[in-house]
């Protein structure tokens, strides 16, 4: 492997990579995703990014569990489970990601469950606004839309709600959980595009329709093929827009990524997942990537398949090529 040849349009230090390892699983109920960052790193991911793809890695060497931020008491609020814990973690993560992005580096965040995207995307969006004076787009690759408001959610698990907070469909006053999230940290629903959806709640379908949010489900992947779908997704957000890619490993079919908390059959192949990441890299517009919902405890022998799939997605998004 060699250093990427694609010129990045929006990073001032494109060969620098800020890595944030988030060992937090409080946005849902199954323990295990907090172990994913270490499993990914131990499988050699960071060494590959450094030695093969020639990135300078900026990493504090820690998997952050944010134990010091956990409240003693965290009763449900607006139907949300662990609202104060998730709010405190994502607020802290937002500033960690912001610091890397403000310095003009790429930011890679290894989760953790998908609630952490409230932190990562808010951090990148704010930094990109400050550095470049422009809005960022988000490509959300997932089996689920994760756009429930607290009120439309059946489960109350916040990993099903991050997009509603990030787009401002759900808001809170200053003194309440997620009240820290401000408009300069949010994204527009018109700059959001989904790929891979196949398990969308009824309330979420209404939200997607009512706000005209662009979404490519597995039906669209079947109809058009992944190549056309990625073209259409990139066309929708515009060819000259910074992109934050938030990749939930459950977008992949459980055949390729079985170790995840909410697997849904009928998903992307590993090649289709890699292809999305490759194409987004090729735009030269990618400024940040999340890889979330790998759960090593749900597969015997520490989830080798799912960890390998996750590593592959990350390498592709960072410029690895087949030839
Ligand atoms: Mn998700």
Description:
The chain is of the alpha/beta class and 323 residues long. It has one domain: Ureohydrolase domain (Arginase, Chain A), CATH 3.40.800. 35% of the residues lie in helices and 15% in strands. It has nine helices and eight strands. The protein has helices at 36-42, 45-52, 83-102, 117-132, 162-167, 202-210, 218-237, 270-282, 304-317, and strands at residues 16-22, 56-64, 106-110, 137-141, 192-197, 214-217, 243-248, 286-292. It has an eight-stranded parallel beta sheet, sandwiched between helices. Strand 7, helix 8 and strand 8 form a beta-alpha-beta unit. Helix 3 runs parallel beside helix 4 (117-132), helix 7 runs parallel beside helix 8 and helix 8 (270-282) packs parallel to helix 9. The protein is globular, with a radius of gyration of 18 Å. Bound molecules: manganese (II) ion. The site of manganese (II) ion has 6 residues, from loops.
**CA-atom Rg in angstroms:** 18 Å
N-to-C series of helices and strands? EHHEHEHEHEHEHEHEH
| Side-by-side strand order of the widest sheet | 2-1-3-8-7-4-5-6
Task: Write the CATH homologous superfamily.
Answer: Ureohydrolase domain
Mean pLDDT: 96
Q: Helix share of residues? A: 25-40%
The CATH top-level class label: Alpha Beta
Quickly give the CATH architecture.
3-Layer(aba) Sandwich
CATH topology: Arginase, Chain A
Organism: Zasmidium cellare ATCC 36951
Protein name: Arginase
EC number: 3.5.3.1
Pathway: Nitrogen metabolism; urea cycle; L-ornithine and urea from L-arginine: step 1/1
């Amino acid at each position: 492997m060699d250093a990427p040849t694609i010129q990045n349009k929006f990073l001032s230090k494109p060969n620098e990579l800020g890595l944030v390892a988030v060992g937090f699983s409080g946005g849902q109920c199954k323990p295990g995703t907090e172990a994913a960052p270490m499993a990914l790193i131990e499988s050699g991911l960071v060494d590959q990014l450094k030695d093969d793809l020639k990135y300078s890695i900026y990493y504090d060497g820690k998997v952050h569990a944010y134990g010091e931020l956990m409240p003693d008491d965290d009763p449900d609020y607006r139907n949300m489970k662990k609202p104060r814990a998730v709010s405190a973690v994502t607020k802290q993560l937002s500033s960690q990601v912001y610091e890397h992005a403000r310095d003009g580096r790429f930011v890679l965040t290894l989760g953790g469950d998908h609630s952490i995207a409230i932190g990562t995307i808010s951090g990148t969006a704010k930094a990109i606004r400050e550095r470049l004076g422009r809005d960022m787009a988000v490509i959300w690759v997932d089996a689920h839309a994760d756009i429930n408001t607290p009120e439309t959610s059946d489960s109350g698990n916040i990993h099903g709600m991050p997009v509603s907070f990030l787009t401002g469909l759900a808001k809170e006053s200053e003194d309440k959980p997620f009240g820290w999230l401000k408009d300069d940290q949010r994204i527009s629903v018109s700059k959001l595009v989904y790929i891979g959806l196949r398990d969308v709640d009824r309330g979420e379908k209404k939200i997607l329709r009512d706000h005209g949010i662009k979404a490519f489900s597995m039906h669209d992947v079947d109809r058009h093929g992944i190549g056309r779908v990625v073209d259409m997704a990139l066309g929708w957000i515009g060819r000259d827009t910074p992109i934050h890619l938030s990749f939930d490993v459950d977008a992949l079919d459980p055949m390729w990524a079985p170790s995840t908390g909410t697997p849904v059959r009928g998903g992307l192949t590993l090649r289709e997942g890699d292809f999305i990441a490759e194409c987004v890299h090729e735009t030269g517009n990618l400024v940040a990537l999340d890889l979330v919902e790998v759960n090593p405890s749900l597969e015997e022998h520490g989830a080798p398949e799912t960890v390998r799939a996750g590593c592959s997605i990350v390498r592709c998004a960072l410029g690895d090529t087949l030839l």
